[in-house]
User: Fold these one by one.
Assistant:
Number 1:
Amino acid sequence: MFATEGTALLLEIIIGVFTILSGIAFSIKWLVKHYFAEIKAEFKPNSGSSMKDAITRLESDVSHLKDHMLKEEVEQNNMQKKLDHMYEILLDFVAKNSK
């Protein structure tokens, strides 16, 4: 009879621990699910205030800046070529007049 009471008590303890652990597990699952739902919402465009919209604006701004920088670099190269050509003309002029 003692073995049956001990087994029943052990079984009750195991069921109680399992119930508590499953309650904790489901609570954690619920928290994670809702936390990720909030994060997921940030990655959907919503006309301006989501992280996705902010990233899109930043990408657009960076693209415009890159285009502007490339245009400026081309203009700078053209100016450098013009200056080099003017320098060559000046050297030719000085060489002809120094003789």
Number 2:
Amino acid sequence: MLATATALTIRRGLGPVLHHNAPYLMLWPAIAFSAWYCGPGPGLVSMVMGAAGVWLWIVPTVPLFIDGSAVTNTGVGLAAFLVMSSIIIAMGALARTRELNERALAAEKSEATSKFKAVFNQSTVFAGILALDGTVQEVNRLNLELCGYKTEDVAGKLFWETPLWGIADDTRKAIRDACDRASSGRSFRRITPYWWADGSEHIADLSVHPILDDHGSVFLIHATGSDVTELKRIEDSYRRLAEALELQVRERTQELEVRNSEVIEQAAMLRSLSQRLLMAQDEERRRVARELHDSAGQIVTALTLSLQTMRQHDGLPPKVSSGVEACDTLLQQLSRDIRTMSYLLHPPMLDEIGLSAALQWYVSGLNERGGLTVSLAMPDNLGRFARGLDLVLFRLIQECLTNVYRHSSSRTATIRIDVRDGRIHLDVADDGRGIAPQKLREIQREGSGVGMQGMRERIRPFNGEMNVLSTAEGTTVKFTFPVPEGEPEADALASGVL
């Protein structure tokens, strides 16, 4: 409005010079000023105010100056003024909008640049902007101060010639190669040493990257690095600790392997000794049984014959005769006991006839003596196995029945022998009170008493297996053996003769 009033005042002052020519001439600069610097609204106000001022204040009838000719000012001059003013206002609005946008962009750019510089300069991580030839253009101040340097110590110098890299020629060469790679569009990263101003050596994780413009061309190089000295120290400590632990573990493993081999060797020696003891025990039983049969049996037979000779004499007193009869009865009992003990120590039928006959005799004797009723189930044509295996099966049955009699409170037991699928199966079962769970777990872990350990040692040379099953309704001990190869009886059993 002030510009419009000023324009009207100037036009009125120029009246003696211009007379009635160009009454709107001074208003167009005012309208352009209002539209350019104040906006389209003030421009329109200036246009309306100017038109009203000309009509009411300058002259009632004003000729329009067109090509030096005067035209009567009807509505044509006003229409021309309004059209021209609208064009000026539109152009001013566009110019003002463009200027405001440029100012906003400039403000945003300035703010972003200020933020970037603040972050750039206050970061503890090294950051630098390099020219394509490697000259340092910008570098963050805070990181340099932490290292003891000033900006002028680094800025304006080739990156690989700055004091950051000390006097290490190989490091300087690597940094120069990194800058060359980045200037050609390739990134670089390396763990490298660098030096502080006090001369102390540190470790940095250095990266050098190319910066591309909108067309994809490299126009700057960005170098960044973080101090990993403490991290490397910790890594080195962990590595040394791991190496020491690995060495200790390796040494300990070697010691354990030696100890384990010694234990295995001792276990093998113990098993061998156990086998030899069992063999010696069986041989001793066989010898004692033979001695009982041959020596004590012959003495008992001689005494029996002597008593029979005395009985044949006539005229023996009644008391002597009754004493002879009593002695004869005792000798018969002693003979039976010696024979039973001899057979139990080593039944001769086991060697002479085989396992089937020995078991039938053994079970029959147990049933006759009472205390335990035993049933035996086995094939009629069981045949004979290897001599050692026959003896092992017989001893296993003896041990199992002894355990039944002593521990199970059962008065019955069942023995089952069968051969199927190339294996010998032996089961000894009772209907007693069973084995306590804790004791059963100990047995299944191959522990418990001498009897169980003895049975395991007996089956080991024949690759046998033992399994103990027990409930409150009774216990079953199961043995399985592979049928020995190369034995005529074994070949018949394995081929399905049974």
Number 3:
Amino acid sequence: MSGPDPLPTPYLLAHIQEALATDSRARELGVDVTVAGTRVVLNGTVATEAQRAAIAEVAGEVVAEHAPGHEVVNELSVMSHDEGGSVEELA
């Protein structure tokens, strides 16, 4: 007997996005999550390599629980220090 059926895509996406927003390791709302077949793809830009890894870890835990057989593809990029934009000075 195989494991549970994976959640329908909208529910899987909702679970991943909720985990990314609430898990203390990630706390990230700006990650784009898509599902293509059995691939869960993470896109966007994050501040550090540690944050990139933590987001993939959190997403992987959700996928393992709710969509066995799916794989997480981490396409997140880490913002370089010169991409930060201008600094706003407060009076």
Number 4:
Amino acid sequence: MNQSDTNQTKGKHGGHGWMMMICCVPMLVIAIVLVATGVASSSFIFAAIACTVMMFMMMRMMGGMGGQGGEQK
């Protein structure tokens, strides 16, 4: 894969990482509502935040948010 191919690939999928992070927002909102209403314990928020952080780290390592992960030469 040459430099121009790399730039084109990043241009096509640049927003994918942000879309994945936005998909975590409903989970966080639901966790907060469940804890606020007493349905779930506060550790449920910790699990939701941990999931979001792991998703962020995974996307960074794979290069999905413009990071240097993935194929490197």
